[in-house]
Amino acid sequence: MGNSLQLLEHVSPGQNLDAYVQTISTIPVLSVAEERELADRLFYQNDLEAARQLVLSHLRFVVHIARSYSGYGLPLGDLVQEGNVGLMKAVKRFDPSMGVRLVSFAVHWIKAEMHEYILRNWRIVKVATTKAQRKLFFNLRSQKKSLGWMNTAEVKAIAEDLGVDEVTVRQMEGRMASVDTAFDAPVSDDDDAPIVSPSQYLEDHSTDPAMQLEASNWEEDSQTRLMGAMESLDERSRDILAQRWLSDEKSTLHELAAQYQVSAERIRQLEKNAMKKLKEAIGAENLEFAF
Fold it and tell me: Which residues form a coiled coil (predicted)?
């Protein structure tokens, strides 16, 4: 096993699948006694070397399972990598006292990781999100007798086998038959070809550059005129407007009344008169925008 371990350090299923498969095929299969000894060492003594040997001796089994999912059009190397993750999870949780072989226990964990990968990558839009939908998805793929649409008898038979209603089977069949549409229209030499990509249905809410420049200039002009009009007010009126409208923490009429030792009504009158002068100086529309 030593030479095989050295080779595995240089190859992975995602890089060179053929070399990876050839390498793991040289790792000997464990006997019942050998597997039980390693499992006991891991379970009772937390022996990590035993865990590594258990994983390595079952890598070929992961490849075998991955090949059964080749019909989904996904890279076999990626499926193997996901299955290896499931194998390691299974080894970590394996209890030798249960009296079953590791391969029987690990198959669930290996397939679970592969299923997650397939559902994440088979379609851009998820076709199965709930546990029941996932079960239906994989069973429907295996039970369909052809690539065409199922007839009523086939739908009924699958619905009875899986314990779901026929409408659910039809819905899942429709999801599986759908095709992802490119966001941008494909390049075509035909100028008359219709453009039906999703990007063509998005409304452009951006403002015309000329309008943006005009708005920016208008805002700058309004601020300049506001500052000029504020200078024409007396110091107390300027301070009242600044604290009431221009400060981050705006003051109340009662706070300003206490500051200037007058009534809140008097502060309101001073504010009203100051605002009136500003409107006359820069215009009501510009004043509303400035504040």
Answer: 253-287
CB 102 within 8 A of CB 59: no
Gap between the Cα atoms of 248 and 191, Å rounded: 57
Q: Which amino acid is at 103?
A: V
Q: Are 46 and 75 in contact (CB under 8 A)?
A: no
Q: Where are the domains of the chain?
A: 1-122, 125-180, 214-290
CATH topology of domain 214-290: Arc Repressor Mutant, subunit A (1.10.10)
Q: Write down the residue that tokens 């452009």 correspond to.
A: 204
Assessment of whether the complete model's pTM goes beyond 0.70: no
Note the pLDDT tens digit of each residue in 75-117: 888 889 999 999 999 999 999 998 899 999 999 999 889 888 8
In this model, does residue 53 exceed pLDDT 90? Answer: yes
pLDDT band at 213; cut points 50, 70, 90: low
CB 50 within 8 A of CB 27: no
DSSP string spanning 171-203?
HHHHHHH--PPPSSPPP-S-TTSPP--GGGG--
Residues 120 and 143: beta-carbon distance below 8 Å: no
Minimal CA–CA distance to 97: which of 175, 25, 42?
42
Please give the distance of CA 272 from its chain centroid, rounded to a whole number.
Answer: 54
Other CB atoms within 10 Å distance of the CB of residue 233: 18
Section 31-53 average pLDDT: 94
Least confident stretch, 1-15, 29-43, 209-223:
1-15
Residues 6+ apart with CB under 8 A from 207: 215
What CA–CA distance (Å, rounded) separates 111 from 113?
5
CATH annotation of 1-122 = 1.20.120.1810
